[in-house]
Amino acid sequence: MTHIDTLLRAADPAAETPDFTDAERRAILTGATAEQKIPERRGWRIGAVAAATLLVVGIGAGSLGGSGATARADEALSRAAINAADPATRPGQYWEITSTGHTRAGISFQEPGQLEAVSVDCAASQVRTEYVSVDGSQPDWYVDASVFDTGPGVPEPCRQLAEISPETAPWTTDLSSNEYRSESWQVPSPAFLASLPRDVDQLRERLYRDSAGRGRGSDAEAFVYVADVLRSGIVPADLRAALFEVLRTVDGVTVLDEPSIDGRQVVVIGIEDAVEVSQLSIDPDGGQVVGERTIDADGQVASDLLITRALVDEIPAEIQRTAERKTCTVHADGAVECSVK
């Protein structure tokens, strides 16, 4: 037992409780918060024994890995791991995941009488709503839309682009989610997520092994892989909790901001490599990732994404009526080729 552990026990009402392993600490924390969480009220409370254990996890020898994330990031990730929870699901239901990204589309135009073309950037929002079978046994459904800004001060070419921008029909395939999605961190299938270990040490080893040799540094790329899989919106609560625990051990992860998104106070964590800063927006009281952003070397936002998720019983009738049905083939190398019926 470390010196700080001894001091904590001497000062705490749970001083006579036995020492705990990392696994026992996590189990006590998870059990305590699960029993006392109130659905209508965000936040969590813990009992005297769990409180003493939390202090040991936060400052004592119980922290995982080497130097790991900074203290503020470690605290936020620990809260997110503890609070990760999902509603009860049943076969036939779907996760409705809506991802809203913002981009700028560059276009060139030539005014009558001018010799040279003029270039402008048109701001647009790209929205994708996915309906993913909770158990992977049914096909996914997709609805894509691009919405161009037509507000005051927007150049006329951008207004024209908004008018002629084609509407994208909803679409689906004849493959189940487990068949259509890949066995990868980037486009994970429910089956792939089920196969990942929940033990934090084993999951960390798998993450670093799968991301080895990619990106611009092992820690930064491990962070990106976690962002990739959490972006999907279908990661089950126990795996999210383990991933948040893994991020606690990744060197260079720090808290960058604490804004409010859709009325929720979130924590933005990030990691920097030689080229960019990768960021995740986490709702630590809900145990969910609610956004993602990349900042380039010039300090400009290169990409950003907001993510919402809900559990639904069925695909909306209008989407089923208007969706394109694609017939797909899975090749030996895992590639999927689709065509419209």
Provide a descriptive summary of the structure in words.
This protein has 11 helices and 13 strands. It has helices at residues 3-11, 22-36, 48-59, 71-83, 156-164, 177-180, 190-195, 200-211, 218-231, 237-248, 317-322, and strands spanning 94-109, 118-133, 141-148, 171-173, 254-257, 260-261, 264-265, 267-272, 277-283, 288-295, 301-312, 324-330, 336-340. The chain is globular. The N and C termini lie far apart (66 Å).
Low-confidence stretches: 1-66
Q: In percent, how much strand structure appears in the residues?
A: 25-35%
Which H/E pattern describes the elements? HHHHEEEHEHHHHHEEEEEEEHEE
**Pairing-aware structural class of the strands and helices?**
alpha+beta
Share of residues in helices: 25-40%
Q: Please count the helical segments.
A: 11
Rounded to the nearest angstrom, the radius of gyration is 23 Å
**How would the global form be characterised?**
globular
Taking strands numbered 1, 2, ... along the chain, how are they ordered across the largest sheet?
5-8-9-10-11-1-2-3-4-12-13
Calculate the terminal CA-CA distance, rounded to whole Å. 66 Å
Largest sheet: 11 strands, mixed
Total strands: the figure is: 13
Averaged pLDDT: 79
